[in-house]
C-alpha cells in the first residue's frame, strides 16, 4: 500500500462515523457492504480486510457475514487504534486482528486467505496492478477478491470539475478507470471478473448526505467538528455531486477469482 500521507485523524473519523454509522468510514454503511457481498459466502472463511478503517466493517464480517477470522490492515494509526478498541469492546479478539502496516508488500505468506475484501480504500493506492498482485499472492487458489472503490470513468485528463472536487477532497485519491481496473486484475491473474457500476446509487445517496449536512442536522455536525469544517464538507459534497451527475465519478463493485491450480 502506498499512501504518501495520512488523511484520517480523529476529527475526520468522528465526522464520517456520524454520517455513515459507528465504525463505518465509507458510504452506505452496512447496507452497501451487504450489497457488495450479495454473491459471496464468507461463512467459515479466513478474510483479509484491506483498508479496515475504524473497524465497523471488520466486525460486521464476523457478526453479520459469519467469517471465521478476519485480519484488518490499515496504514493510518488513528483508525487502527479506533478499530482495535472496537474489537476489544466486542470481545472478538480471538477472531479479529487489526494491524498497522507500512507501504509495500502485504505482510502475509502466499495462499493465506480464502477471501480478500476491501471497501473504498484502493482508491488511495496509485499502482493498481501492484496491489492486485499482492492480493493474488495472499489468496488461496480458488479464493475470492471482492471490493468496492471510487473510480473515474475515463483515462484522459480529469475535467476541471473533477480536479476541483479532488482538490477539495484532498484525500490522496489515485483514481483510475474501470478499464484500468479490469486490465490490472487480469494481468495479475484473476479470472471470472464481475463489475457493477454504482454511480446511480451513490448520486442519490450523496444528495441525501448533502441534505443532512446542510439541513436541520447541520448544527450537530458543527458541534462535533467546527463550522469551518462543515462548510468545507458542504462545498466538497456539492462538487462531488456535479461529477457524479456527469458520470465522471463512478464508484464500482468488483469480484474476481484466483484460479485453482
What overall geometry do the principal axes of the alpha carbons give? globular
Report the order of strands and helices.
Answer: HHEHEHEEHEHHEHHHE
Q: Helical segment tally?
A: 10
Spatially, the strands of the biggest sheet line up as 3-2-1-4-5-7-6
Number of strand segments = 7
Structural class: alpha/beta
The span between the termini is: 27 Å
Molecular structure report:
The protein is of the alpha/beta class and 261 residues long. The chain contains ten helices and seven strands. The chain has a seven-stranded mixed beta sheet, with helices on both faces. Helix 5 crosses helix 7 (178-188), helix 6 (160-169) runs antiparallel to helix 10 (227-245) and helix 8 runs antiparallel to helix 10 (227-245). The longest helix has 19 residues, at 227-245. The radius of gyration is 18 Å and the shape is globular. The model has no long low-confidence stretch (mean pLDDT 95).
Provide a quick synopsis of the model.
The protein has ten helices and seven strands.
Characteristic key phrases:
single chain; 261 residues; alpha/beta; 7-stranded mixed β-sheet; 10 helices; 7 strands; 44% helix; globular
